[in-house]
Amino acid sequence: xxxxxxxxxxxxxxxxxxxxxxxxxxxxxxxxxxxxxxxxxxxxxxxxxxxxxxxxxxxxxxxxxxxxxxxxxxxxxxxxxxxxxxxxxxxxxxxxxxxxxxxxxxxxxxxxxxxxxxxxxxxxxxxxxxxxxxxxxxxxxxxxxxxxxxxxxxxxxxxxxxxxxxxxxxxxxxxxxxxxxxxxxxxxxxxxxxxxxxxxxxxxxxxxxxxxxxxxxxxxxxxxxxxxxxxxxxxxxxxxxxxxxxxxxxxxxxxxxxxxxxxxxxxxxxxxxxxxxxxxxxxxxxxxxxxxxxxxxxxxxxxxxxxxxxxxxxxxxxxxxxxxxxxxxxxxxxxxxxxxxxxxxxxxxxxxxxxxxxxxxxxxxxxx
Length: 368
Prior knowledge:
The protein has about 375 residues and is mostly helical. It folds into two domains: about 1-115 and about 165-365, MFS general substrate transporter like domains (Growth Hormone, Chain: A); about 130-160, no CATH class. The chain contains 18 helices and no strands. The protein has helices spanning about 1-15, 20-50, 55-75, 85-90, 95-115, 120-125, 130-140, 145-160, 170-175, 180-195, 200-210, 220-245, 245-270, 275-290, 290-300, 305-330, 335-355, 360-365. Helix 3 (about 55-75) runs antiparallel to helix 12 (about 220-245), helix 3 (about 55-75) packs across helix 15 (about 290-300) and helix 13 crosses helix 15. The two termini are about 30 Å apart.
């Protein structure tokens, strides 16, 4: 984690220098850092946080993304109007966007150096470092009021821990009977998660609203409202992630997401932009409180460490591809409505697959 922070800080610093080359290089390095953190964070939570709180922390992880989106949307208010392209080219205010991660990285590094001084608890236990694990238990467990009680909790955790997957090779993860099913299921879960189009829609809201003729709000106003609603929806995931099982949220979430996407497409086809906007709000609420709340947690609970790396890469590659594909799809013969019909139908199939194929994890049950 500390290495990822340092890599990201270098990338964010380079992006602040004037010039296209600095910007692209800096953002590439920064993106690599974010990918590392996105993969490591769910695993660290699963190995550190008491099991009955994992669902809540999964919601917090979901909320962190929504907070970043809301921050970016809010900072966009200081930029020149969308129609003034020359002013957008000349403005230096974009440095706020590229420099903001340096503040976050500084806070993260301080926490890592002065508080999270060891590896996660379950990682330490599976590597035979019981004394260090006991010390960490005293930090995170409410009832570990002294070292004896902390050691007792560490013993209980040790009995429930699986053998560490950190030493498993790529070949073992994807070919051995013991691990391959978890690896391929995690890849599939991440794929259908990205195909819920959440990231692509959040990046394309301005363009989507510009196509909705007769929409009451301006594209920028609609985008800002989406940012606030998305944050509220992610905050609600703190409840759903704790209250419901992983399998229920993934299977039920994809099904409802599919319904909302189909509804959004239908209302656009019927030239009901304001009602379509409410359908989009409903879609975001369902997505954040179901699928987004537990996908990374579920993948970290069923996949080996090396598999989780591939899961993260697949997720970010699909986000990248969808971000650039959704615009041309909307501009093609299928139009805005047809694009959302397509993704809505795919999400209904994803919900059906999850219902019949996914199994609940042990953490998903004990967390409730």
